[in-house]
Design goal:
The chain has 19 helices and no strands. It has about 450 residues and is mostly helical. Helix 10 packs parallel to helix 17, helix 12 runs antiparallel to helix 13 (about 300-305) and helix 12 (about 265-290) runs antiparallel to helix 19 (about 420-445). The two termini are about 25 Å apart. Mean pLDDT is about 80; it is low at about 455-460.
Length: about 450
């Protein structure tokens, strides 16, 4: 049986869990609320895509900046900024009178969310060591997936019984709890005297991603030949290229390219891109299709993914511990392959819809695969980088996962053929399986298990 954690470690873990919970809770609520948002504010699939992607654009772009700020100015300060900003943006979303205000508020929420997850994981990696770190990340993973339980349930219940707007205000509760725990922790972090912020790099990254994603989302409506599509796409790619060039030359990069010299770091991030792109595609398509295609209520659509969350809560910490003992390679390979198989099970969904026979088997296998994958993946990536750079390492990994989700959601119109009917749902399931398969193969080919420390010889007695 594992020994109980010291008081400071318990507080740090609770803070990390709650701060991340805020961001994850919002992500699961919004998918269930998308059809209701469309019914009230209008805009169709494009509004639904921008509701998701406005958040992911600022989150994915600024999370790198937040990681640098976290290492330079202190994780606790960055957490406080993120929590307060996230709460304010949540209120603005709940009050949005039209799609434009909603999208702007979602972008602001993503900017605040960028300060939450990297600082949370950096607190863990700077507080826990060796096997205890794997255990802590496993606990963090399993508990933060509680957001996957309450998120769809809250979103569905609020949509069906009250309003989708009120669902976003639930963030106030974990935000207040986390701020209170930060006061109890009672630690103050000192600013590094040589700390610098690369505002030019952050601007190039944000504008580059925003322009490219705008083109991908609007392309089904305007076509590739429209200057309103190819011009921002070209400008976005150019700005992102300039961002990468600047990271090689600036004294204070927000994306230190030397991190990618560590094999497990760059390989793990490639696997992350495939796996989290697939997760974003699956979460969006399943939540929307079950309501608009299969005719389920928002509450039932929210409950549909409950088996995934239960599997995560029950098994994530265990697989995190096993990966700490045996290395992450096998787990990072087997998990995505299981999720690829789970995605293909969704091809059984037919016009004669049955959740129990057509969707539930996929959810169970998907949940097992996700539990096998997430903790080992996180441990492998963060374990490849020295502790003092854990904030930026965590930020890079989170940026990769968010940008991957951002790009996949932006191309959903192309994946499903412009319409999320049964055929589009099946195409999305196949695309999810392909992405997961790629993630598993990359892990098998690239990840290396850390060398085991030699055990001391038993002393004669």
């Amino acid at each position: 049986m594992a020994e109980p954690l010291p008081r400071r470690q318990r507080l740090v873990l609770a803070i990390a869990v709650l701060a991340s919970f805020v961001a994850f809770l919002d992500g699961t609520i919004v998918n269930v609320a998308l059809p209701a948002i469309d019914r009230e504010l209008g805009g169709g699939l494009v509004t639904q895509q921008w509701t998701v992607d406005a958040y992911l654009i600022t989150l994915g772009a600024l999370i790198l900046l937040a990681g640098s700020v976290s290492d330079a100015f202190g994780r606790i300060l960055v957490l406080r900024i993120g929590l307060i900003g996230f709460g304010i943006a949540s209120v603005a979303i709940a009050a949005a009178p039209d799609p434009l205000v909603l999208v702007i508020a979602r972008a602001a929420q993503g900017a605040a969310g960028a300060f939450l997850v990297p600082s949370s994981l950096a607190l863990i990696t700077s507080t826990f060591r060796d096997a205890a770190q794997g255990r802590a990340i496993g606990i963090w993973t399993s508990l933060t997936t509680g957001a996957m339980v309450v998120g769809p349930l809250i979103g569905g219940l609020f949509v069906d019984l009250l309003s989708w707007r009120l669902a976003f205000l639930i963030n106030v509760v974990p935000i207040a709890a986390t701020l209170w725990l930060l006061r109890r922790l009672g630690e103050r972090e000192q600013r590094r005297p040589d700390a610098r912020i690369d505002w030019i790099g952050a601007s190039l990254c944000t504008l580059g991603l925003g322009a490219a994603v705008f083109a991908l989302i609007e392309q089904p409506n305007l076509g590739w030949g429209s200057p309103a599509i190819w011009a921002p796409l070209a400008a976005g790619l150019l700005m992102f290229g300039l961002f990468l060039v600047r990271q090689r030359t600036t004294r204070a990069p927000i994306l230190p390219l030397d991190l990618f010299r560590a094999r497990n770091f760059w390989t793990g991030n490639i696997a992350t891109a495939f796996v989290y792109g697939a997760l974003a595609l699956n979460g969006f398509v399943v939540a929307v299709y079950l309501q608009q295609g299969a005719g389920l209520t928002a509450t039932l659509a929210g409950l549909a993914s409950l088996p995934i969350t239960i599997m995560m809560i029950l098994l994530s910490a265990r697989f995190g511990t096993l990966a700490g003992r045996h290395g992450p390679r096998l787990f990072m390979t087997a998990g995505p392959l299981l999720m690829a198989a789970a995605s293909l099970l969704l091809l059984t969904v037919s016009p004669e819809f049955s959740y129990w026979w057509q969707v539930l088997p996929s959810m169970l296998v998907f949940g097992l695969g996700l539990a096998v994958t997430v903790s080992p993946l996180t441990s492998a990536i963060l374990g490849a980088i020295e502790t003092e750079r854990s904030g930026i390492a965590s930020a890079v990994n989170n940026a990769v996962s968010r940008v991957a989700g951002l790009l996949v959601v932006a191309t959903i119109g192309l994946i499903v053929g412009g319409r999320l009917d049964l055929d589009g749902f099946h195409r999305a399931a196949i695309a999810t399986a392909v992405l997961m398969l790629a993630g598993g193969l990359v892990s098998w080919a690239g990840i290396r298990n850390p060398a085991r420390m030699p055990q001391p010889e038993p002393t004669a007695r």
